[in-house]
Specification:
Layout (H helix, E strand, L loop, with lengths): L2 H15 L11 H29 L2 H25 L3 H16 L8 H4 L9 H7 L7 E4 L3 E4 H13 L8 H18 L4 H7 L3 H17 L29 E3 L15 H4 L3 E3 L11
Helix pairs in contact: 1-2, 2-8, 3-4, 6-7
Length: 287
Amino acid sequence: MKPSKIASILALGLLAGCASTNNPHDPLEGFNRAMFSFNEGVDKVALKPIAKGYDAAVPQPVRTGVSNAFSNVGDLWVGVNDLLQGKPGAAATDLFRVLVNSTIGILGLFDVASEMGLEKHNEDFGQTLGRWGVGSGAYIVLPFFGPRTLRDSLGLGVDLYVDPVANHDPVDVRNSLLALRAVSDRAELLPLDRTIEEASTDKYAYVRDAYLQRRRSLIYDGNPPREKLDYGAPLYVSPLAMSPVQDLHRLALVSPGEVIEPEPASAHQTEAAVPLAAEAAPQAASE
């Protein structure tokens, strides 16, 4: 897409976003819908076709190894966020996962730690800010990085700043790794495409609702206070919604108007109904 077209989309979106909406969680809905369409277009013309080729050409064991290796690198930052949130036990587990998978698992290619019963957690700096009491702020859709809140956008900046892959030298190796990670993440989501399209009547609204509910659940480690949904539907998350330091996760289906009843389980255990990615982005495009 030409830069002039991208600029036009952004301008129109910002103008539309200035208009008031009926959703207090989404005051920039006009801009967000335009940016959502842009991200979907990038996925359709670039990332998804490449992911299909990768899925067809690369054997499953190799694809699993690539995904495991990137996940292993991400566990370092997960452990740090556990410490920042006052969860030393979880931090010890995540850092020990890195040690086990980096050695016995051959640089993370094999997830030996999970087979040993070491639970994988999901933490990022946006969640840490939430645990510290920082409000979520308005919902916003970022170019390439997809759904965020203002708080999570700030957290994303910190996540990227410390991401070992995004800061790797030399630059050509870094860019190759970022591109491989983006393609690997997108390939994991290919089986969901048909389900997502068939389930949605307003894809943008589904992604927004799913993101806001899931982030709230993660901040409370899967046990948020009871909350009556303002708008409900079977939920999913867009392929352009994964953060560069997060693994694939799952999100339970929620019926319209349902009252969420938290269960005494970890955030990782409660995201179990449909495989989803909650914050996925073509990282290479951001470089």
